[in-house]
Amino acid sequence: MPTSASTLDFGYPWWLSYGHVVVLAPALAGLLFGYFRKWSKWPMIFFGVLAFWSGAAFLLVRLGLDINGRADLPTESFLRSGTGRVLDLGAGTGRSSIMVLAARPHATMVALDLFGESFERHFGPGESPRQRLLRNLKAAGVERRVTIETSDMRKLPFEAASFDAIVSSYAVDHLNREGINQTLAEAARVVKPGGEFLLILIANDKWARFLFGPLLSHGGTRGSAWWNTRVKEAGFQVVEEGTAPITLYLLLRRP
Ligand SMILES: C[S@@+](CC[C@H](N)C(=O)[O-])C[C@H]1O[C@@H](n2cnc3c(N)ncnc32)[C@H](O)[C@@H]1O
After folding, report:
1. What is the CB neighbour count within 10 angstroms for residue 127?
2. What is the mean pLDDT of the chain?
3. Residues framing ligand 1 (Cβ under 6 A)
4. pLDDT band at residue 220 using 50, 70 and 90 as cut-offs
5. Which terminus of the chain is more solvent-facing, meaning fewer CB atoms within 10 Å of its CB: N or C?
6. Check: CATH 3.40.50.150 for 83-253?
7. Domain ranges in the chain?
C-alpha cells in the first residue's frame, strides 16, 4: 500500500518484526487454558517453553534488530571526515543509504541496486522499486544528496577510484562465491586509495538461530574468518571488525 511522502517504509516482511507473536499468542492462551483446566505438567511445560522462546525472541527482534526501523552506523570510525562521495551496494529501499547520510550530513551517495528479482523477494511486488527507494530518501530528507543507479554490483559502471567510501548492508551475502569475489574486486577498484568500505553482513550466529531457526538462510555458514579471507584476497585491509544484533560488520580500507 502506498505510504505518505513523510513516512519511512523499508518494506521488510512483517514476520521479521512480528512473526513471533503468532506463536506467543496461542502459547499464552494454552497456558491460561491449561491452568484453569488443571492440565498435567507436560503440556504446561510445552506451552511454557514456547511462550518463553517466542516472547524473548519478539523482544530481541524488536529492540535489537529492528529491521524496519532506522539503522545506526555500527561504527563511528566510518567516514570520520564526515564528507565524500559514497557508494551503497545493494541499496534496496534505502535503509543503509539513509543510515550513512543521516550520520554524515556532508556526504553524497550513489544508491545502487539491481532492482530485480532479489529486490522483489525481500520487499514484495508492487510500486516501482526506484520509487520506493526515492520515497524513503525523501521521507528522510536526504534525496538531494543521492543519485539512484540501477546496476549490478558485480560489474560496476564507474571509473576506477571514483568513490571516497563504500557501504553495503545485508546485500553482498546474497551472492554466490563467484559473485562475492567479483563484487569485492569491483569495490576495491572503484574506491580511492585510502578509502573505506563498511561491509555489513547477517551473522549466522547463535542469536540468529535462536530467533529464526532455519528460516534465516542468509549467509550460509560463512563466518568472520571466511569473510576476512575474501576481503584480504580482494586487496582490502581490515581496520575494525565487530558485531551488532544478528550482524557482523567489517570496516575495510584500500591501501
Ligand atoms: C536485503 S536487501 C538490503 C537493502 C539495504 N542495503 C538494507 O540494508 O536494508 C539486499 C538488496 O541487494 C540487492 N541486490 C542483490 N543482488 C544484487 C546485485 N547483484 N547487484 C545489485 N544489487 C543487488 C537486492 O535487490 C536488494 O535490494
Report:
1. 14
2. 91
3. 90-92, 95-96, 113-114, 118-119, 122, 152-154, 169-171, 174
4. low
5. N
6. yes
7. 14-65, 83-253
